[in-house]
Amino acid sequence: MSTLTIAIIAVFVAGYLCIALESFTKINKAAIALLMCVLCWTLLMIGKGAFYPDVAADGLVGHIAEIIEHHLGDAGGTLFFLMGAMTIVEIVDSNGGFNFVRDAIKTRSKRKLMWRVAFMTFFLSAILDNLTTSIVMIMVLRKLVQSREDRLIYAALIVISANSGGAFSPIGDVTTIMLWIKGVITTQGVLTEIFIPSLISMIVPAFILQYSLNGKFDKSQNLPKAEVTQFTKVQRDIIFWLGVGGLVFVPIFKTLTHLPPFMGILLVLGLLWTVTEIFHYNTAEDDTMAKRVSDLLSRIDLSTIMFFLGILMAVAVLQEIGVLAALGEGLNTAFSGNYFLINGIIGVLSSIVDNVPLVAGCMGMYPVAPDGAMAVDGIFWQLLAYCAGVGGSMLIIGSAAGVVVMGLEKISFGWYMKKITWIAFVGYLAGILWYWLEKMVF
Question: Residue 350 and residue 167: Cα distance in Å, rounded?
Answer without folding.
Answer: 13
